[in-house]
Protein backbone atom coordinates (compact mmCIF):
# COMPACT_ATOMS: atom_id res chain seq x y z
CA UNK A 1 0.00 0.00 0.00
CA UNK A 2 2.88 2.40 0.75
CA UNK A 3 4.01 2.10 -2.85
CA UNK A 4 0.97 4.10 -3.99
CA UNK A 5 1.10 6.81 -1.33
CA UNK A 6 3.08 9.85 -2.30
CA UNK A 7 4.39 11.67 0.74
CA UNK A 8 5.09 15.34 0.28
CA UNK A 9 6.97 17.26 2.93
CA UNK A 10 4.80 19.66 4.95
CA UNK A 11 5.47 23.31 4.24
CA UNK A 12 7.41 24.94 7.02
CA UNK A 13 6.76 28.32 8.51
CA UNK A 14 8.54 31.13 6.74
CA UNK A 15 11.20 33.11 8.52
CA UNK A 16 8.98 36.20 8.73
CA UNK A 17 6.56 34.34 11.01
CA UNK A 18 3.95 33.76 8.33
CA UNK A 19 2.29 30.39 8.16
CA UNK A 20 2.58 29.38 4.51
CA UNK A 21 -0.25 26.87 4.71
CA UNK A 22 -2.97 29.37 5.54
CA UNK A 23 -1.33 32.70 4.78
CA UNK A 24 -1.81 33.97 8.34
CA UNK A 25 0.70 35.28 10.77
CA UNK A 26 1.21 33.65 14.14
CA UNK A 27 -0.14 36.65 16.02
CA UNK A 28 -3.41 36.59 14.07
CA UNK A 29 -4.20 33.05 15.19
CA UNK A 30 -4.49 33.98 18.87
CA UNK A 31 -7.75 34.36 20.71
CA UNK A 32 -9.21 37.85 21.07
CA UNK A 33 -9.18 39.34 24.54
CA UNK A 34 -12.27 40.78 26.15
CA UNK A 35 -10.96 44.34 26.03
CA UNK A 36 -10.08 44.10 22.34
CA UNK A 37 -13.72 43.66 21.37
CA UNK A 38 -15.47 46.73 19.91
CA UNK A 39 -18.56 46.69 22.12
CA UNK A 40 -16.66 46.15 25.38
CA UNK A 41 -15.78 49.49 26.95
CA UNK A 42 -14.28 50.35 30.31
CA UNK A 43 -15.92 53.39 31.87
CA UNK A 44 -12.64 54.56 33.40
CA UNK A 45 -11.05 54.58 29.94
CA UNK A 46 -13.99 56.52 28.50
CA UNK A 47 -13.78 59.08 31.30
CA UNK A 48 -10.01 59.40 30.85
CA UNK A 49 -10.37 59.95 27.10
CA UNK A 50 -13.12 62.48 27.74
CA UNK A 51 -10.82 64.45 30.07
CA UNK A 52 -8.11 64.42 27.42
CA UNK A 53 -10.55 65.68 24.78
CA UNK A 54 -11.94 68.45 26.99
CA UNK A 55 -8.65 69.96 28.18
CA UNK A 56 -8.28 73.33 26.44
CA UNK A 57 -4.57 73.29 25.47
CA UNK A 58 -4.17 69.63 24.56
CA UNK A 59 -1.63 68.64 21.92
CA UNK A 60 -2.85 67.35 18.58
CA UNK A 61 -1.04 64.07 19.14
CA UNK A 62 -2.90 63.42 22.41
CA UNK A 63 -6.22 64.28 20.79
CA UNK A 64 -5.63 61.98 17.83
CA UNK A 65 -4.50 59.16 20.13
CA UNK A 66 -7.65 59.49 22.23
CA UNK A 67 -9.88 59.69 19.16
CA UNK A 68 -8.25 56.64 17.54
CA UNK A 69 -8.82 54.69 20.74
CA UNK A 70 -12.44 55.85 20.76
CA UNK A 71 -12.79 54.86 17.10
CA UNK A 72 -11.90 51.30 18.04
CA UNK A 73 -14.82 51.19 20.49
CA UNK A 74 -18.57 51.48 20.08
CA UNK A 75 -20.10 52.29 23.46
CA UNK A 76 -23.80 51.93 24.12
CA UNK A 77 -26.11 54.91 23.93
CA UNK A 78 -26.45 54.83 27.71
CA UNK A 79 -22.67 55.06 28.19
CA UNK A 80 -22.40 57.89 25.66
CA UNK A 81 -25.12 59.85 27.45
CA UNK A 82 -24.02 59.14 31.03
CA UNK A 83 -20.34 59.97 30.47
CA UNK A 84 -21.13 62.78 27.99
CA UNK A 85 -18.31 61.59 25.76
CA UNK A 86 -20.49 62.25 22.71
CA UNK A 87 -20.54 65.97 23.47
CA UNK A 88 -16.75 66.07 23.80
CA UNK A 89 -16.32 64.31 20.44
CA UNK A 90 -18.93 66.54 18.82
CA UNK A 91 -17.16 69.69 20.04
CA UNK A 92 -13.94 68.50 18.40
CA UNK A 93 -15.60 68.37 14.97
CA UNK A 94 -14.88 72.11 14.64
CA UNK A 95 -11.28 71.88 15.88
CA UNK A 96 -8.73 74.07 14.09
CA UNK A 97 -6.60 71.03 13.17
CA UNK A 98 -8.16 69.21 10.21
CA UNK A 99 -6.83 65.80 11.24
CA UNK A 100 -8.49 66.05 14.66
CA UNK A 101 -11.75 67.39 13.23
CA UNK A 102 -11.92 64.66 10.55
CA UNK A 103 -11.22 61.94 13.10
CA UNK A 104 -13.88 63.36 15.43
CA UNK A 105 -16.38 63.39 12.55
CA UNK A 106 -15.57 59.76 11.76
CA UNK A 107 -16.02 58.67 15.38
CA UNK A 108 -19.25 60.63 15.75
CA UNK A 109 -20.76 59.29 12.51
CA UNK A 110 -19.70 55.71 13.35
CA UNK A 111 -21.41 55.89 16.74
CA UNK A 112 -24.48 57.63 15.32
CA UNK A 113 -25.02 55.06 12.56
CA UNK A 114 -24.59 52.19 14.99
CA UNK A 115 -27.14 53.66 17.42
CA UNK A 116 -29.60 54.26 14.57
CA UNK A 117 -29.20 50.65 13.43
CA UNK A 118 -29.76 49.42 16.98
CA UNK A 119 -32.97 51.47 17.29
CA UNK A 120 -34.33 50.10 14.01
CA UNK A 121 -33.85 46.47 14.97
CA UNK A 122 -36.93 44.68 16.25
CA UNK A 123 -36.78 43.29 19.77
CA UNK A 124 -36.40 39.55 20.03
CA UNK A 125 -39.26 37.82 21.77
CA UNK A 126 -38.26 34.57 23.43
CA UNK A 127 -40.97 32.00 23.90
CA UNK A 128 -40.70 29.12 26.33
CA UNK A 129 -42.72 26.02 26.97
CA UNK A 130 -45.59 26.07 29.50
CA UNK A 131 -43.62 24.36 32.28
CA UNK A 132 -40.80 26.92 32.10
CA UNK A 133 -43.25 29.84 32.04
CA UNK A 134 -45.05 28.44 35.09
CA UNK A 135 -41.76 27.99 36.95
CA UNK A 136 -40.64 31.53 36.12
CA UNK A 137 -43.92 33.10 37.17
CA UNK A 138 -43.79 31.22 40.50
CA UNK A 139 -40.21 32.41 41.05
CA UNK A 140 -41.20 36.01 40.27
CA UNK A 141 -44.16 35.81 42.65
CA UNK A 142 -42.05 34.33 45.45
CA UNK A 143 -39.31 36.95 44.97
CA UNK A 144 -41.78 39.81 44.97
CA UNK A 145 -43.40 38.47 48.14
CA UNK A 146 -40.02 38.11 49.84
CA UNK A 147 -38.91 41.59 48.80
CA UNK A 148 -42.22 43.11 49.86
CA UNK A 149 -41.84 41.54 53.31
CA UNK A 150 -38.27 42.87 53.52
CA UNK A 151 -39.39 46.37 52.56
CA UNK A 152 -42.20 46.30 55.11
CA UNK A 153 -39.83 45.01 57.80
CA UNK A 154 -37.26 47.73 57.08
CA UNK A 155 -39.95 50.45 57.15
CA UNK A 156 -41.22 49.11 60.47
CA UNK A 157 -37.67 48.94 61.81
CA UNK A 158 -37.03 52.55 60.81
CA UNK A 159 -40.25 53.64 62.55
CA UNK A 160 -39.24 51.83 65.74
CA UNK A 161 -35.68 53.20 65.71
CA UNK A 162 -36.86 56.71 64.87
CA UNK A 163 -34.84 57.07 61.69
UniProtKB/TrEMBL annotation:
Keywords: Nucleus
Gene Ontology cellular-component annotations: nucleus
UniProt region (Disordered), positions on chain: 1-30
Subcellular location: Nucleus
InterPro entries the UniProt entry points to: TFIIS/CRSP70_N_sub, TFIIS/LEDGF_dom_sf, TFIIS_N
Chief location of this protein within or outside the cell: nucleus
Superkingdom of the source species: Eukaryota
Biased composition (Basic and acidic residues): 1-22
Span of domain TFIIS N-terminal: 44-118
Protein's name in the database: TFIIS N-terminal domain-containing protein
Species this protein is from: Engystomops pustulosus (Tungara frog)
